[in-house]
């Protein structure tokens, strides 16, 4: 034996292993009552359930005698070992007072479901599988079950259904935001558990109904305790649980907890009014429970885990502040109560200025509209007075804000018929609060009232003086006389038409204007019925040109134009041309449903009985249906990955279209090339491989290319990844990158078959096959070890090309970039594509962009650093590329840290990187010490700082060497865990630098 070989640290004498509780259940209570038990309660639950997981999925059939000592209950079909373990797990959960907060923080979702299923099964006396919508009837219990205990289990389960969805949404939102620290205490709820939660959505409403029913139940709610579960021992063949040991709790404690859970869920689904109702009920019951139970007994709560601080947070989230309602809130409540106390609220707001003027203006318009429709809810005179009062108070607020004076004048003009009453209201409300306004606001009011005197004082005459005499605080009688004495009449007297306020434009009948109006309507409308009516009206004006020439933007495909132009000039020609042109416009704007509707109406128009004998009409109908198929395909490609509603019918139509092209010849009608290319691309994306293995006309290179890619896929399937060279697609694509004579550089033609196909590819496997072809071709043409690219399925393609000098490698890079950008748009987290995109940027010497894609690939592969970084996600090829990028970017310590990621740490490269560190310290060297797990590298850094005379930095590096987990005598498992933690820490720092 090698005595120097590191071994595991021996366990403490106080440490108890999980199976000891199975052999001697009496140890459990003693262990759990320790201050810091090891293992912890949740660790025990994990161990107990992990040793008997089969009870949740497929319970064994125990109709025959079980030699292993099975528990022979008619309801529960657990083995004796399973039942013993599950009872121990439930005893621990009962000791924790069924605290879902603690269970959710430390148990995975699958274990939470298993624990709840075991609780339901044992309390029901028969097997229960979760999730299930059949749990709504608590009467369905076995002979060994208990009604009140099963009711307790169901209540706990339905609470968990709501909480699990809220918790999952919080974790996903935090992960995707990439801002700030992780959500605390939610580390067990990772992305791998997401698949367990969607199954709960169909029964969510049932859970809400059940919890509301529990709230209304008059019977006492009983909570299972630690003594309620009787453990098995080696001498007992079966057990009878002590459900009578459950304790009854106060109704207010139960209601506080259930209303709290309902409030959480309603906030998550944005039903804020229901959340507000439940949080108020929770608050009331919580306060009553504290007075009646906790204050009286001093014992910890038996069931409710609501925290006063968290409850206060939910009260604030629901708008329950405990403070008096603000003026804006009071305004909204007044509107709901038919504008009660609205004048008092606005007068108070003129002092406090809390309500935005936009809200006050909306209030004014609402009251105006309320009165305009002739509401019979109140006295019309009182309603009109209320409207004028609101207008007057708004004018005062406008004036004191020092802006929007134009709005004040508009209001006085608007209510010209009620002007005396409005001005009187202005004087009244300004006078009532005048002494409460500031000096500046008083000055603004005085200047405004002087303006009113100038504009309207002469019109009102004695009535105006009466207002001033009654409300003399703003403007006194003496001030009015002085102002009038200083105000002189204008020298220029206006009269006649200059004083006319209403200008009426006479109506004239102009046929050209009427026709122009109809044409504008025809251009803008999107309804086939409207087009039909407008064509009839415009045709009555005897136009000299076909009506489809009104809008030059209406264009149709050339094959359709060849069918439409020979038709006799008339309604059908114009109707068809315009509908097809409008459908193309709508398709370009991605309004696919409207475009398909127009083409469907046109197709039905061509099938009218009186047009049945015309061969041109029959051709037109067929081509219009093809045009509709093209729009459907474009919609599917644009909305990918959402599948079409009737995918099977769409696939059949595409196959018929390709068959028509394959069988077409002579005078047979054939679909145009664009439609055929789209049909082939859609079938390729939908994995309809057999439909593309048909004889292909050389006139349609797009279909031919799709067929070649299909054959490459079939080779992968047939030969199961073995090296089988596929030449069909290779030989088709290779000529596309030839250098034309007399030219050394050019771009890929945008209308070429390869570029057009790239724009239509959506299926990941098809994209990967084409990416591998382009990457392999690039490696052959470039023929440099440092410029190679890695992609999937590169074994499919030949390893050499004759006369590489006649090909343009820049065009290959262009095609690769085009395809990668298209692919990552739909699948941004595809790891092989992200790595390949990084290779493309690396070859182009765009090192920062390359690092961004490499880091993105690693972040996606580790589920945003929630799982450890492992192979094959990261390999030596990728690490060496990242080291090269970091070195070229001047991040030498990053490069040194990355040298640890190799299978064997490359000390030579790491030491060189640290020694070449720039003197500017722009690499933030100190921040990476916590990411280094190799002691040798840390020792080199310590010595390097010593040589440089950097004492403080040397001490900092020494402190990291002294960490326990980096001790050279640790076992391999501790070393791996230490390295994994530091890898993720370093990966997060790279993500902040290159991705944010």
Automatic annotation (TrEMBL):
It is found in: Chromosome; Nucleus. One of its GO terms (cellular component) is integrator complex. Its main location: nucleus. The keyword Nucleus applies. GO terms for biological process: snRNA 3'-end processing. It comes from the Eukaryota. Coiled coil: none annotated. Belongs to the Integrator subunit 8 family. Residues 513-994 form the INTS8 TPR repeats domain. Residues 54-73 are annotated as: Disordered. Keywords: Chromosome, Nucleus. Transmembrane segments: none annotated. This is INTS8 TPR repeats domain-containing protein. The keyword Nucleus applies.
